[in-house]
Automatic annotation (TrEMBL):
Keywords: DNA-binding. It comes from the Bacteria. The keyword DNA-binding applies. One of its GO terms (molecular function) is DNA binding. Residues 34-57 are annotated as: Disordered. This is DNA-binding protein. Pfam families: DUF3140 (PF11338). The lineage of its organism: Bacteria, Bacillati, Actinomycetota, Actinomycetes, Micrococcales. The keyword Acyltransferase does not apply.
Length: 123
């Protein structure tokens, strides 16, 4: 269990390290955030956004021991890391505190305003 098909231990270790850096909200913080209107306001189309759905999945992953993660969990972790890294590179100028850019990242488990958060390409 916990093995991604075709993925060796080094790759899982790399994903786990990147995940720990990308996801800087705790399960409780993310769960609380996902209940807010701001969280629900971002995304495309009607219904639950991809980011909001991802956030619920991230909460589940954060509550699971690494040894018990499924192949799909590892794949989602890799997807989250990629999204956070790409989105950080698109950081708008100025105060981002109340922006859809920040709200979207928070749905994916990363608060760019949290102390110690990566500033993307604009450190």
């Amino acid at each position: 269990m916990g093995r991604v098909l075709g993925m060796d231990d080094d790759e899982r270790t790399s994903i786990a390290k990147d995940w720990d850096e990308a996801v800087n909200l705790t399960a409780k913080q993310l769960e609380d955030w996902l209940q807010t209107e701001e969280s629900k306001s971002v995304g495309q189309g009607d219904g639950e956004s991809t980011g909001h759905r991802s956030g619920r999945r991230i909460v589940e992953i954060l509550g699971t021991k690494r040894a018990d993660l499924s192949d799909a969990d590892w794949a989602h972790m890799r997807k989250v890391v990629g999204y956070v890294h790409r989105h950080l590179e698109q950081r708008p100028k100025g105060d981002v505190t109340e922006t859809n850019w920040r709200y979207s990242l928070m749905n994916w488990g990363h608060d760019p305003e949290k102390a110690g958060a990566s500033r993307g390409g604009r450190s």
